[in-house]
Fold each of these.
Amino acid sequence: MNFKLEIWRQFESGQDGAFETFEVSGIDPEASFLEMLDQLNERLSHEKRRTVAFDSDCREGICGSCSLVIDGNPHGPRQVTSCQTYMRDFIDGATIKVEPYRSTTLPVIRDLVTDRSALDRVIEAGGYISTTTGPQPDPNAMLVAPDVQEEVMDAAICIGCGACVAACPNGAAMLFTGAKVTHLNLLPQGQPERESRAISMVNQMDEEGFGGCTNYGECARVCPQEISLDVIGMLNREYRKATVKKKPKAPPKMLTQ
Amino acid sequence: MKLHAKIPDGPIEHKWRTWLDAHKLVGPRNRAGKNVIVIGTGLAGGAAAATLGAHGFKVKSFCFQDSPRRAHSIAAQGGINATKDFANEGDSTRRLFADTIKGGDFRSREANVWRLAELSENIIDQAVAQGVPFNREYGGQLATRSFGGVLVQRTFYSRGQTGQQLLLGAYQALEHQVAAGNVSVHSRHEMLDIVIVDGEARGVIVRDLVTGEIERHAAEAVVLASGGYTNVYYLSTNAMGSNVTATWRAHRHGALMANPCFTQIHPTCIPQSGEYQSKLTLMSESLRNDGRIWVPRKSGDDRRPADIPEPERLYFLEERYPAFGNLAPRDIASRAAKVVCDEGLGVGGTGRGVYLDFRDAIEQHGREVIQDRYQNLFEMYERITGENPYETPMMIYPAPHYAMGGLWVDYELQTTIPGLFAIGEANFSDHGANRLGASALMQALADGYFIAPHTVTNHMAAKRGEVSTSDSAFDAAQDDVESHIAALVDVGGSRSAQEFHREMGNVMLDKCGMARNAEGLNEALCKVREIKDEFWRDLRVDPGVEELNQSLEYANRVSDFLEMGELLCHDALRREESCGGHFREEYETEDGEALRDDENFAKVTAWQYQGEKGDPIPHDEQLDFEEVKLATRSYK
Ligand SMILES: Cc1cc2nc3c(=O)[nH]c(=O)nc-3n(C[C@H](O)[C@H](O)[C@H](O)COP(=O)(O)OP(=O)(O)OC[C@H]3O[C@@H](n4cnc5c(N)ncnc54)[C@H](O)[C@@H]3O)c2cc1C
Ligand code: FES
């Protein structure tokens, strides 16, 4: 297969960038999108030109490293990660536009590589159960019904790729944060910190500059793990319940936007 | 050099307790003054850094990904073993211990394996307390299933994403300690050298992968949790970035590398489909619980699998190993697949594939049950191959997967360099010549949560002087690192590191993969050296070292793989026996099984680096088997 690629090139964070056009030919339809980019880079090396920078690691849809925007869609056309997007998903001869995530909270580092550390900081604010290594209670002392476990798992499988933020017109991280709050707040172990967790994670989202949710639903549309909008409902409910007891100083963006 | 494993005296059941009762402590008020460096944020490194941080030490944690949550452990699918015996089958520490020793083909250290089995229960408790959502039974209790090489159901799992959930547990514990101010995480940082002062590991040199800046970090102990080296084969189930750099640089400084030829080729992976391919995808071994593995009895039979009648199918594992059938251990299942494909019975475009068929399981249990068990794996398979495994059997073939070998460590997980520890897949560990399924997660977490925090504390309890990063040892290490980087850029050739990596991987897989012989290994040694020479003549790296430069990162890793590849061949040559994943064609029984030589090789081979031109020197650690009788493995 042959393609024309328009790839975003940007030398450094904060600098201007521009699209550069490349032609690739003889691509196997079974090659993944990233393998196609590997081939391009191999060729650029031969031509002694600067290769295209992009993130990837597991290449099987679980680590959340890959983060392209293909033809305007975070990850690509099929609601799977960029690394699981195959060239057979494209029409032979097509022109394909490849960009980095565009969001002020996830700034470009180079070419297609972005800085997603804001998401780590949201977890740091309370996306955990405060326990340390040591003797723990018998796990069967806290029974969890299988349907609750399923609901928890549906949220816990978030890979933290940030596509939800990139897709949201408001640049919100509600799906990401909602997934973590749903995972932990539904479990018996998560109860003691249920309220403080919701409040601190929401505050951190605000501090990082993530926008609020106005129900576009783009996040769930692009999520490669098919995390449902329900987690945002859960986040809103948890936050409201928590703040009934403890009034926040200023309402967060998720409520004001 | 005499290798001291430092195994405590006393009965095997009490060794770890004995060690714990005697080890030196650091008082809570003195901990904040002690720095520890942990390289890697996978299960081993994440768990160790979080635990040491919670104890109050100052921990610096490093990973090359953009977030600690993306470490390769995230990709583990099937599950984690523990002797909880919730299924009431009479499982016990002794049974898990014996299974692991036997599964490893009697090439691991009894005392370490016992401790691993003993700690397995704590891991499950710890993970559940962190909110890891393991699968549950109807009553709400934890569910378990069985894995290859054992006869009990001791594997805990979270759908097909066990590694992800366990890693997120460790990552969240790590972030908790970041919030508490005990741990600082340095993502997109790669360790390029270790710094030794007065014979002890006292720091590291790392490169900030975004700015290219070379940084110095000093500490009282350095823990390497940098994962395995299976990407020496180029195509493997490991993540693209998995590499040997951290451990190899330690090896160059004198840390011995043990049993490098013990590598695992996993039986159930999606076969390779083209030259361009960058990695192979594993299909969890748990599929072998319900899938039956077969090939047509007749070579060149190109009927659709569904049209091939029962008598014309060769269920080669069931026929050859009736007791374990499709659940035979990995090394055995992989080799059996290779043998039938070598005989020309393989299926698929390349003839390198066998069927994994769910037809009978679907008939017996119904589609819904099978869907419940494997839905995400089936979806993944369909996503990659475009075929629906509910209707047509999967096609699988073995692929390089795991490194049993690694840095030699004693009972305290300390390498031959004092103050330098190696945990998780980075050490040569507990799996001998073959690892059983669902045991790597267990080992990485036992090392990280429950062993290293104590042994590292024990090391730090001794008085030692301050070391500043302006010490001359740091100058020298930084010079080395900078000149290596400059050398890579200066080659100024025209081929990317990936090309050399691919070339080398093909040689390694062909000559030092599932079957090996002396002639092939010698040939591989020559070829790898040739590729290395060519690499240093014609490599192309993007210019610009003080910036994000992925081609430089990759070339740097490949330069170490090229050296590691040679060591693998040396080790495979010296081990003149077949055991576990190391199958030497000269040493097989009449019916084609591995022929061990316990008299000469019931030992660990740990290699000492002798410079780029010199041949490495082997040192032996004799293995004694007192608890499990040395016996030929039989899964028949
Ligand atoms: C596809 C797949 C499925 C698997 N499934 C299972 C399973 O079901 N059950 C099971 O028990 N095991 C399984 N395994 C094996 C298991 O996942 C690994 O052995 C285990 O996760 C290794 O953990 P680790 O902490 O030692 O290393 P890793 O998770 O590999 O982590 C390595 C860390 O080191 C860092 N690092 C490496 N080099 C450097 C450097 N130079 N500088 C800085 N940082 C560095 C990386 O950034 C990373 O954070 C599977 C493996 C694969 C590939
Ligand atoms: S590279 Fe890991 S999810 Fe795409």
Amino acid sequence: MSAHTPSHPSAALDAVANGRVPDSELVAHLESCPECVAYLGSQAKLDLVYAWRGIAAELDAPLPSTGERLLALLGVPQWLARFTLQIPSLRPTWLSCSTVILVLATLVTIRLVPTRALDVPVVLVVVPLLAAFAAAFASARADPAYEIVAATPLSPITALFARLGAVLGANVVLCEVAILIAGNRLTTGHRLRFYSGLSVGRGTLALGWLLPMAAVALVAAIVSARWRPLAGAAVGGGAWLVLVAVTAWISSDPVSSLWGAPAEIAYAGAVLVLAFLLGRSSARGFVLSPNVDFD
Amino acid sequence: MNVVFENLSRSYGSVRALDGIDITIGPGITGLLGPNGAGKTTMLRILATLLPPTSGTARLDGWSTSHDRERVEIRRRLGYLPQDLGLYPRFTVFEFVDYLAMLKELHDPRQRHRRVREALEAVDLQDVAGRKIRTLSGGIRRRVGIAQAIVADPQLLLLDEPTGGLDPEQRVRFRQLVGRLGEHRTVLLSTHLVEDVSAICTSVVVLWHGRVLFQGAPAELRKRAEGLVWSAQEASSDAVASWRTDNGKLRVIGARPGPSATPVEPTLEDGYLLVTSGSPIR
Ligand SMILES: Nc1ncnc2c1ncn2[C@@H]1O[C@H](COP(=O)(O)OP(=O)(O)OP(=O)(O)O)[C@@H](O)[C@H]1O
Ligand SMILES: [Mg+2]
């Protein structure tokens, strides 16, 4: 082969063509030298170009990430795991920020609620806010490659609920820890222990805060599916803050007004309606909605 | 795959981006030509099932983009390169194309990895397969976009300005690739470059303000300008377009600018300029 000057390891290639396993140096060379790959193909009885492409592909293929492996343990297929993890609100930085905010909210709650300087436990107010942001930044439009991804056969409902489920799951864990800590540090019998469900006993996750959190997250998801993530977070979080502020203003007992049984029933109704609306709108499967500006 | 538009319109508020499109596009390579804002991206987004039409329908092999279940069938056969290409900066090139291949239902890892490798070789990116996307230049990112569009061997390939940002060598390579792909598939590509169309397209659609001004073979578009292109010292005021060429003379499109003007062979670009000028000549 005339083109094979000394920089092309002809002898080694001939040996490989005759069945020797290539060493790492030769593998590296083959990776960057299509000429040698072609030469190898012409020398060997096997279709080595084809074989080499397979080897090269396996060398380049990425290993599953830690998150993907974790989800695999839960039985989530790799494609769905990789898809689910491609959202800003599941990035380690995002989760760390959420943790910091929860720690601060927990500290404030522990300090201020017993002194009655504050009527409403801050941590219970912060939890739905975090969820609003997390859900908004789990929406299709928060994915930088949303235009390409939306043109794949992936079911829009699966896509939506996988990502929303994952961020809410992560937030539930973080928030439950924060509320457990806050609840435990408060005096026994304090109402926060009741509303965070801790009075039912250690290990029981009676989640009075979960329904408002879910409702607010769904509002954020619906708005960001139509407009953009920041709008979703603003509307969901804003609605919650207004509700808290108004209740604190007009109610003599804001904690039971916001987290008591009648409120919880209202949240549950809202969650059902909102989940239905979200599912229905995403089943249509257009990421670019019909009558809004999307750029 | 056959693409059929039936009286399709699409508005954004009061802007009518597509206005009563009624055309059929068959297998082969079709170039969508048109000035900025003509509606090319809107048309491709509707075919890519990302955007519903305001009225009318778009059908691909009989499947309507407005029908939930049929849309999935379309997506199974689709490769799409958007104009605003969003990628994951933290991914490697291979990882990104592999990820899209997964979403396109190539579930067997070995087979999928091989397909990814082939797609990367097709756009000459095998050497940067392990590089993070955030470290790549714009032209290389564009090629990553092309690789993900072809990885699952689509029957319909929609490419929105695929040659934007490619260097001349890669443009030639891209034309060869699309020429190969277009032998057995339907390829629809939007571009501002008339050369792209003359080099590879078997048919051309000229869009202008949301309407189809021309559909046919590139040679036909060129013919529209026959007898209307001149080499002259001076342009007349009613010329459709005129510009100075390297022989020092003006190339004039329109009525004969003067008795000394000599007729010249029209190019595809002349035909395009004439068709989009809205000129009453002809
Ligand atoms: N999201 C949007 N909201 C409002 N108007 C839009 C939107 N997208 C496009 N348009 C308008 O629709 C028209 C067609 O736009 P489109 O992007 O389809 O043009 P194009 O032919 O792809 O242009 P270009 O060559 O610049 O990419 C333009 O007038 C544009 O301003
Ligand atoms: Mg465009």
Amino acid sequence: MIAMIARIRPDIWTVVLLLTLTVIAVLLVWPLAGIFTASLTDNNSGEPTLANYARVLGHPFFQGALINSLIVGAGGMLGAALLGIPLAVLTTRYVIVGRDLLATLAVLALVSPPFIGAYAWIMMLGQNGFLRAPLADIGISLPPIYGFFGILLVFSLKFYPFVFLLTASSLRTINPSVEEAAEGLGAGAWHRFFRVTLPLVFPAVSAGALLTFVLSIADFGTPSIVGGRVRVLATTAYNLFTSEMTGNPGLASATSVLLIVVSLVVVALQRWSVGRRNVAGAMIRRPMPTRLGPIASVVAHAVCYAIVLASSLPSLVVIYTSFRKTSGPVFQPGFGLDSYARILREVPQVISNSAIYSLIAVTLIVILGTLIGYILARRQTIMAGFLDGVLLVPYVVPGVVMGLAFVVTFNVRPLEITGTATIIVLMLFIRRLPYAVRASASILRQIKGSIEEAAVSLGAAPGHAFFKVTLPLMLPGIVAGALMSFITAINELSSSLILYVGRTMTMPVRIYLSVLDGEFGTAAALSTILLVTTGLAIYAVFWVSGRNENAFV
Amino acid sequence: MARVDLQHIGKSYPGLKALDDIDLVVNSGEFFTLLGPSGCGKTTLLRTIAGFNRHDSGQVLIDGRRIDNMPAHRRNIGMVYQDYAIFPHMTVADNIAFGLVTRHRPRREIAERVTRALDLVQLGGHADRMPHELSGGQQQRVALARAMVINPQILLMDEPLSNLDAKLRVELRDDIRDLQRSLGITTIYVTHDQEEALVISDRICVMQSGRVHQIGSPHEVYSRPATLFVASFIGAMNVIPDVPVGTGGTLQFGTGLQLLPALAGRTSVTLAIRPENVILSGRDAADGPAIALEGDVNKVTFAGREAFYRLTCGGTLQILAHVYRPDQRQLEGVGTRLGLAFPLARLHAFDAADGRRIDLAP
Ligand SMILES: Nc1ncnc2c1ncn2[C@@H]1O[C@H](COP(=O)(O)OP(=O)(O)OP(=O)(O)O)[C@@H](O)[C@H]1O
Ligand SMILES: [Mg+2]
């Protein structure tokens, strides 16, 4: 293959391809091979062994973690579907005032730091939560927040926007004539919905739901903060690796491999359902939302706003908390900027670290991601197919696992970078690279190849044609991809938690540690900074992509 | 102005011969059309000349110089695409100026040439428009001006009209032809529309499955198709397969015409005749020798100036006959039996096996 490209003259794209393959080999294949090897190695003797897998698969402790992971995955998926589907149907089919606002708030909930939801709900519904007593007064008694209830509550409210956005966009592409035809053939409203509409949107719904499943089992922060005694695979792997007493890299690695396998199966399912998603036919007419009767309309609005406000609640609580007066870790009546003063005094470095690491990573991501996207979209070679597949890996491998893989791999020469800022930047880079690649490839697929050829036939050298014609047309997509990478990079918790040392601590790590220490004021102030940054980035994405919520899924 | 030599060009994709030993010459100043069904390799050949895909074998020469190894951007070849390929982020003027800017022409000269090119394609006054403010036809005119303004040695056009509606298609077709004539630029034009090819071309190259079937003037390919494929691809044609031939070339089909020495030694032949050459009895008499047979009229379609008769001869053979200026009496002929004549001078014969033309009268 490379030989074939080389024969056509080694051009800029050959160089890019080789660079990409090197990056993938070093930052993806090698670490994952490392963790795989570690899982097959005895901790003490260094001999190859299957004992780690025997433990992980045979011991009730690990079996429990696996089952819990599957429960939170399935539960998160179900909860997200239960919230997302009605919201999608109501907002696309009926006149709902403030539809754009709802979508924006949903996106905000989606990209806000995941663990923020966890501790905000603790503040609301924990033992002393300020909502628990009022709710009990009106007769609603809730189970304790720590445990499955908390985890599933957070996951459902956090991930439903995926289901909502994918389903809504699919619903919007159903030609109303199809439904009218069904009606003309004598199908009643329910019959029509279940026999015509639902099968048409099912691929989108299932794609969104399975995505939720993957994200739920990969999430580390939420079960770790609000899980109580519920152990899942992600938290188990982390604890096995980090705990001083019982640290066990072999077992941690075997657990990680198990986690990868579970994710892989679900991602494969998701891909498969996305692959079959092109059921929507030619669009002749766009469906028009219908107006509901007064009572139905009130109910529909209530449902929509309840869902979206519930998911926005954590952010509001965090922002509110950050402005409360504190003395040390204890809240005082009244408002003030104490928490902000405190983080500026005590941990100003985490803010600059987060900003610097994310910006460097995003710069690298944009440069390489754009070029790889070009290869994927424009070079129909075996290599392009291979890259497309390989770049799914960072989606599949949970952050905890990737972090462990980096630690076990990059602690020996020549790449002894554990404990440096470089390792964190490289981690962010490889984990978020696929976002930029996807953004760049998808916009390129909308730019006809003949445009670039025309430039070449007019005398522009291929590189020149790319920079003069294609790149300017790609710019909005590249910027949207960069912002998405930035949002996810600056909010990254799980892998950073494994890779950080004191000097290289980032905001999410500090927030997490503060929450564990009960320093809610500090956590809230830092979270607010993250939220505002994220919100601005979202605003910018809307601005460049012309208000397209689907840029986020 | 340049002459193009394609010598034994071959190109294979996995499991497919896209170009099979293409060997042809396009003369200087000629309007040369590649015509063939979808997938026959027209675009592949065009892109080989432009330098966008590499052929496996053979060579491309322009004015006797090999250009196979010259990168596309140095070939000085103008290209017009089916989807216009207008740069959407540049104004009309900037689109047209693009090739001149890459050639580092002085600003004054660029402005002048752009203005002249715009006038040439009748878009004067649209210089500052953005492409999305133009209709499809206007966009294609911009593409044409953009390709012409660099004074290319050759102009390549890949189905430039197929995204336009019928009326615009005819209008722009005529304009392209006039422009090409007045500038005398060697043009290779791709289409799968045989009527367009006949109207616009100096010469036509008919292709199928990566092979050249015939190269000739529109009149030649229409009236003396070199293969059965050409005969049936261009214009309407009645094809009568597997007509038995007796010893010495005796045709065992119809009456009137029996011995055809050109068919001597064959056992069967494929005959073909265009609907307008079929003579219906009671209309015109055939002058010269002709095959005579009888057919039942089962459908008559009236189209104003002309009418089409569909007849069944000898139980299964379907023949279409084209009648000019039909009169009322003839249009009521469904169900009647008519005599048909196929004049020898208008009859085509093809080898029953490989479809090659057999000349009946030397
Ligand atoms: N990159 C490619 N890889 C594999 N096969 C190809 C490739 N490009 C073209 N082909 C095949 O080569 C053959 C010729 O293609 P080409 O595009 O030249 O046809 P065409 O005559 O221009 O057809 P159309 O009228 O549809 O444009 C087709 O069968 C096509 O499928
Ligand atoms: Mg083509």
